[in-house]
Amino acid sequence: MSQDALWLDAEQQAHWRAFLSGSWALLTALERDLEESTGLSMSEYEVLVRLSEAEGRSLRMSQLADQVVASRSRLTHTVQRMEQAGLVARRASLGDRRGVDCVLTDAGFARLVEAAPHHVASVRARLVDVLPPEQFARLGEIFAVLGAALDQPDPVS
């Protein structure tokens, strides 16, 4: 082990490991609940949500990739599956024919409307209703700070 590293103390290590195991367990449970109740993966569900919130239910693929926090190649595979299922369609961007837009179909919107109550119930049961309101609010504040910090240049490199 390097002597130069600023190691975590015992309390920090305990919090770090609790974060790792808790976040992994939460996301795994939410994914399982969603797939079992709706047949959608978390990635597919998130694509449907983001498109439903976009003007004209359409986003450029690059914008969609940024919003769903996926690599462009991973998103392309997800969208291909969803397109084959009739949930989305791809078309040349109206403003710039070099780009590609992903558009939510009526069938995709209907699938989202059907799936949303199941997913919201899972999120409530596994997170929102587990924490007192002040802790849930604090969790949101903490992740807003982390998200903003992670948007900055990499401090590790």
Protein architecture, described:
The protein is mainly alpha-helical. Helices cover 65% and strands 8% of the residues. It is built from 6 helices and 3 strands; from the N terminus they run ααβααββαα. It has helices spanning 10-38, 42-53, 61-67, 72-84, 106-128, 133-150; strands spanning 58-60, 88-92, 100-104. Strands 1-3-2 form a 3-stranded antiparallel sheet. α1 (10-38) packs antiparallel against α5 (106-128). The longest helix has 29 residues, at 10-38. The chain is globular. It starts with 9 loop residues before the first helix and ends in a 7-residue tail after the last helix.
Brief characterization of the structure:
The chain has helices spanning 10-38, 42-53, 61-67, 72-84, 106-128, 133-150; strands at residues 58-60, 88-92, 100-104. By secondary structure, the protein is mostly helical.
Task: Please write out the topology.
Elements: H1 10-38, H2 42-53, E1 58-60, H3 61-67, H4 72-84, E2 88-92, E3 100-104, H5 106-128, H6 133-150
Antiparallel strand pairs: 1-3, 2-3
Helix pairs in contact: 1-5, 2-5
Determine the mean pLDDT.
92
| Spatial order of strands in the largest sheet | 1-3-2
Strand residue content: 5-15%
CA-CA gap between termini: 19 Å
Structural class per helix/strand content?
mainly alpha
Per the principal axes of the C-alpha atoms, what is the gross shape?
globular
User: Order of SSEs, N→C?
Assistant: HHEHHEEHH
